[in-house]
Design a protein that fits this description.
Elements: H1 2-14, E1 20-22, H2 27-32, H3 36-45, H4 50-67, E2 71-73, H5 79-91, H6 107-118, H7 138-149, E3 155-159, H8 168-183, H9 194-205, E4 210-214
Parallel strand pairs: 1-2, 3-4
Helix pairs in contact: 1-4, 6-7, 8-9
Length: about 220
């Protein structure tokens, strides 16, 4: 139970994702803390001192919070199907780490300036541009930035060769890639034109923390 308390604290303080899995147990029983949970808490509460009672209170709070999260009820489905669904959901939330040489003189100071300019903890839309002559490392710096901060967003996408592939068809492909990355719908949702893609992105991502990197 101490581990559950820590997990829920990480969810609150670090905005980490938590998935509840109800393994052959009724979610309402977990929420109401009846049955085996009631018996277990009663056992621990016997002769408990003030410190132990406070710990039990944290256990109960964490258990109730966890039971209130969207999750999976294994009792009503095949376990193999549930496992595949969980893998897909988790895979869609893990930021992709891109290959980049970060051992470059001055990299850290430039990254800090970019992070400061983005004001990641604030609400609203933030845009930061990196410009300069070709070959000076613009793509390297934004790739390193992506690796550094993508785990602080619910959704992230890295689009490359945006300028070179600026035709109507390639723009549609970039929108498709953005949808695949951000919504986790690869192979499930196809857009037929740019306007449709823009509308879907607005509808689906307007309430989420999203990081999108564009590289020319």
């Amino acid at each position: 139970m101490d581990e559950l308390v820590k997990i829920m604290r990480c969810k609150e303080e670090r905005e980490q994702k938590v998935i509840s899995i109800f393994y052959h147990v009724d979610p309402s029983e977990v929420w109401n803390q009846k049955g085996i949970y009631e018996k277990a808490f009663s056992y621990h509460e016997e002769n408990a001192d003030k410190e132990k009672k406070e710990k039990i209170r944290r256990w109960k709070t964490a258990l109730r919070e966890a039971s209130n999260l969207a999750g999976y009820d294994v009792k009503e489905s095949y376990e193999s199907e549930i496992i595949q669904d969980i893998i897909k959901e988790i895979h869609g939330t893990i930021p992709m780490v891109l290959d980049v040489n970060e051992n470059i003189v001055g990299m850290d100071s430039r990254l800090e300036r970019l992070v400061s300019g983005l004001e990641i903890q604030s609400n609203g839309v933030r845009m930061v541009g990196v410009c300069g002559l070709g070959g000076i490392g613009k793509t390297t710096i934004i790739t390193a930035l992506y690796n550094k901060i993508s785990n602080q967003f619910q959704i992230s996408s890295f689009l490359t060769n945006v300028r070179e592939e600026s035709t109507k068809y390639s723009s549609l492909l970039k929108l498709q890639q953005l949808l695949d990355d951000t919504l986790g719908v690869k192979g499930q949702l196809t857009i037929n034109n740019i306007y449709q893609g823009v509308k879907i992105i607005k509808d689906k991502l307007s309430s989420k923390r999203v990081l999108v990197n564009f590289s020319g």
